[in-house]
Here is the input.
Amino acid sequence: MSDPAVSGPAVRVGGGDGGSGTAPRGAAAPRARHARRAKSPGGSPARPSRGAPAGRPASLWSDAWHELRRRPLFVAAAVLIGVILLMAAVPQLFTSVDPYDAASCRLGDARQAPSAAHWFGTDNQGCDTLARTVYGTRNSLLVGLSTTAVTVLVGGLLGLVAGFRGGLPDALLSRVSEVFFAIPSVLGALLILAVFRTGTVWTVMLALAVLAWPMTFRIMRAAVIAARGQDYVVAARALGASGRRIMFRHILPNAVTSVIVVATVNLGVFIAAEAGLSFLGVGIQSPEISWGLMIADARPRFLEAASPLLFPAAFLSLTVLAFIMLGDAVRDALDPKLR
Amino acid sequence: MAATGDAILEVRDLVKHFPLTQGVVVRKQIGAVRAVDGISFDLRRGETLGIVGESGCGKSTLAKLLMGLERPTRGSVRIKGREIAGAKGGELKRIRRNIQLVMQDPYTSLNPRMTVGDIVGEPYEIHPEAAPKGDRRRRVQALLELVGLDPDHVNRYPHQFSGGQRQRIGIARGLALQPEVIVCDEPVSALDVSIQAQVVNLLARLQRDLGLSYVFIAHDLSVVRHIADRVGVMYLGKMVELGRDAEVYGQPAHPYTQALLSAVPVPDPEGRERRERIVLRGDPPSPANPPSGCRFRTRCWKAQEVCAQQEPPLQLRPGTWHESACHFPQIHDVIRAF
Here is the structure.
């Protein structure tokens, strides 16, 4: 909407506070923000008078971003997630051993305790646990990210339609979602995965998404119904706005925050679910590497060698924790009532 | 003010009943809430018609009907001779260029995710014929200036403004299409008293400068008195009294209007003690099951047999100078101390 030529003059910091007139938006931001904060402790900004610093255009998102950066919980979660993402993208950075190369494992080295050569020890096949754990990150994250993307798209879109249209479409979609809600998730996933001969990242994603979309659907539907009744929607209708404009310009931007928050938390839950399904043998199959699979492989000889089970389990817990913490922080930052 | 003769908005026998239904699978109508039940009035060019009444009397439903946001059960709303009540699609959209809305709550009537420039400029996106594309930004800034805001604030978001400023943004949005009629639904009741005066004066100035006609709905009698040329008093979906503001305030004929006026706080202690206070008994009856005949009779001290049998129409009555809907109208000055 706002082309650069339009936003140009308004971000310029006027007044005689020494602010250079051409300060870029990012640089002017913190100062303008603090000025605004100081002026209005109650939250409602003081009346901006003519010629006073115009300030940067603040949105809920940029406010949330500023809020987030000051939270230790968010910073810890973000650093953890950053490391995990890097591990998934370029595992070679973290280990010189390629666990997909069968020659890297020597049966003679099986079940060694952690040492200088094998930091996390070795597993039943004599493979390096550190390398396998690092390489397993990619599959876990792929499942988590793709399942989240699919549930947000499918559940979000259907929720938008159901909440906005109401009536028969809403009744139909809601009943269908309740049917899926009624299926116990582990049992349902087992059933769906049993249909496929081999489990891969994508079959696991499908099984989880089929069972998880109703939650996103419900949250989106509720948020849309809440936004639909707002006065600004009535005002848009009074202007003669089309249904599509009201849906995408007025309702969706206001309803999407709650879905984003739940999606962040769910990401961690999906990663844990993938590990669970792989542990049960219906998820990702060997020779692919996944944390759940590693835990399953190490379980029978756990008493002899604990490290092949403990390290992937610790990585799994940390990853899930990081995403749930991120979800918590994002929820707090996006909810103005908690500010 | 400069109210010329021709009616720009004609409302005739407007009725809105909201059905009350029972049952989950098979819906059965068991009754109706008679929110607006037979209202007629004209709004002349350049005039302000104040509509007052207590909560639940159908004021806001009336506003929605005038805007074409609700479909009336019966009756007609004509703006410059064009019927809005039954209009659809492109026709409705065209009519809407002539009638716009200023809403009550400045905190919920602006989309928090849109900048002020986008909010005020949205009417031009919906009605691209109203302003050429290259001209829109200039027009938005001119509108902001018109309502007393800094035109450089187009890139700000609503939460960076105070309540009064937000209401100005809402007014600028309503003015964008250059409508001739503006329906103000309690435009100041969510604001502080000092800000109320600013906004009311802004509306009065805009009316003078742009020749607007207002339907000004409020429950605050003194605000309506300040801005309105004529005043209509509503009770349970009916108009009980309609006349010039000096007449309705100075010589109210309907007992409900008298009771309403006697409840207005008087800032002068002496006047407060001398003046008469009419205290109504009971609550307003349910609009789903209104009393027979005159709707006010259950709380009226003058009620007689005829009031339960015959509904008094809104008309000029002997001994009064403006229309009222009472079988026993009597001019009674309750606010001499005002």
User: Anything to note?
Assistant: The mean pLDDT of chain B is 87. Chain B touches chain A through 43 residues (CB under 8 Å). DSSP finds eleven helices and twelve strands in chain B. Residues 193-210 of chain B form the longest helix (18 residues).
